[in-house]
Design goal:
It is built from no helices and 17 strands. By secondary structure, the protein is mostly beta strands.
Length: 209
């Protein structure tokens, strides 16, 4: 072999291209539980986010004309209370997600977060002896039988539900419109009241003997 007759230069180009990651964005749709909820992001089917992964969130569609890169935030949006539209239907919040990770193409996804109203059932019963006059039974928050779990800093208020009777017999309170918020509310420690987190049914049985 001879190495003396030539001078040489060696060069090359070796490209390693980014590959697509597997991105899953799962939404949330359950009844109000006094806790905050958002979307769940999973990358490459791993339980934990890969080291170095950057996750960004936006409430504005990145493909819309109103979008600006400043809409992206690393803070995940979360909701606790129910939001209702003008027809008192729960509102869904769409969360857009962008994930950046070295050696992978940037991935995008979205999912909805919807907090649904929780059903409360209130049923009161009382018995009083006949006294020839009209008598009234009040149904209050003490008569809740299903659906409400006390939340620290909140007080459930049931108002305006009365059953009126005079003669011996059984008087029944019919179910109220579950979409009417005027008779039930949650009073909060900060002095505000909420009518939206619950749907309710109120019934009663008032017996005059």
């Amino acid at each position: 072999s001879s190495f003396d007759n030539y001078k040489y230069q060696v060069s090359g180009k070796f490209t390693i291209e980014a590959i697509d990651m597997t991105l899953s964005v799962d939404g949330y749709e359950k009844a109000y539980d006094a806790k905050s909820h958002g979307v769940t992001v999973t990358v490459n089917k791993q339980e934990e986010l890969p080291e170095g992964a950057k996750v960004y969130y936006s409430l504005v569609d990145p493909e819309s004309e109103d979008f600006d890169e400043g809409n992206w935030s690393e803070k995940p949006p979360k909701w606790k209370d129910v939001d209702l539209d003008s027809d008192r239907n729960p509102v869904s919040h769409t969360v857009y997600v962008k994930v950046e990770l070295a050696n992978y193409n940037t991935a995008y996804g979205n999912a909805d977060v919807t907090i649904l109203q929780k059903q409360i059932k209130v049923h009161g019963e009382d018995t009083k002896p006949y006294n020839s006059e009209y008598q009234i039974m009040d149904i209050t928050a003490d008569d809740v039988v299903e659906g409400y779990e006390p939340v620290e800093g909140e007080t459930l208020v049931v108002r305006g539900h009365k059953i009126r009777g005079k003669d011996v017999g059984i008087y029944m309170q019919p179910y109220n419109d579950p979409d009417d918020p005027s008779y039930i509310s949650v009073n909060k420690a900060d002095g505000t009241s909420s009518f939206d987190n619950y749907k309710y049914q109120v019934s009663g049985k008032f017996t005059i003997e």
